Request: fold
Amino acid sequence: MTQAYQPSRRQFLQSAAAAGAAGLFLPSMNRAFGYESPNERPVFATIGLRNQGWAITSKSFKFADFAALADVDSNVLGENVQKTKDKQGKAPDAVKDYREILDRQDIDAVMIATPDHWHTKVAVEAMLAGKDVYCEKPLTLTIDEGKLIEKIVKQTGRVFQVGTMQRTESGQRFLQAIALIRAGRIGKVQKVTCGIGGMSASPVIPEAPVPQELDWDFWLGPAPKVAYRALPEMRKGYGGGVPLHSNCHYAFRNWHEYSGGKLTDWGAHHVDIACWALGATDTGPSRISPTEYTLPVEYKDGHPVVDDQYNAATKFEIHVAMPNDVQMVIQSAGDNGILFEGTEGRFFVNRGKITGKPVEDLASNPLPDGAIEEVYGGPVSENHTANFIEAMRSRKQPISDVWSHNRMLEICHLSNIAMRLGRELQWDPEKREVINDSQANSFLARESRKEYEIEM
Reply:
């Protein structure tokens, strides 16, 4: 490995401690402090670099220096090292094993964009190594992983941002949606519908030679040891350059071994905003009812009976009983986004638009001054990374904290469990367990493969 990247040494950790009582939102216009001063820029590393890994890295160059990148695919690693060198003028160190990053004292924070089944192990070990963490959504593969992360955040005092960037970005449309609801513009909320899209089933995917550039065993990590599978056709467009059908790059979201399908992909975004709008970020549902759904393969006792096809639900409509008699519907049909319906109106919001009569009425009856900032908790950050760095300095948790994320993600995980078992689930949001259903509760955790357990 090359010599550790050492920019002009920031007094970052010292200034962070000194600012501990300053509050999350800094008063200056340059609130993501230090990106104009090389002596105050924090030093980051990214672990997992395809697609979203590069996305969160590239929008962070304005605020931080990247000393190292890690990926188990040497091609992905090499490409992103070069792109990073082009952006910041110096190449970061390139490593396959993320633990080399955690051992370094010059790195203040890590950004994690591995496949979902790796998130908890890397995040917990990073916090125990003294790093602040920005981790992509969905944060966890299981509900119990979320509880562990909460415990370690509390134990270590590390700052932890989840990558649900709709809370900060998307033209503040989602913040405006929440402000409309808080201002009573649709009366009492009765129903919220989250359209998150569906998936396509796969053909049978045969075993295939592992690509030379990929450490397949390390990619699997905590997941069960299985053969690499892929078909020759290549994916085009976003996430392209890899097999269209496989159990690895990009397609991992279609497998419960590594992710949770659309429920924990787009669901992690829209269910998050819905819960925030409903004031349900510290509680949970009472009932999860899968009314219609299609699993692409046969299941027995909650487990797929074949291992050569995608196994996450392709179509679904799930009814969720939320506090205050609000019904949440999570569905694959319809436009991607969130429809809020109340006693006095309704409106729709997604990343590209916010529409409906309550929105149109803003022309003559605008929201009160400061309504958006009140939702956010202060001036809205430049982007999600800026909010993370502001929190690193203040030592307060950022806008996408682990507790609110886990509460809403429990809805997504429970929806998958309900479909896999083929029945309605009753949930105790205080105990955070399924009521009178030991089989369903057995899905709240998953054992890690030997030699890939979390190092505590």
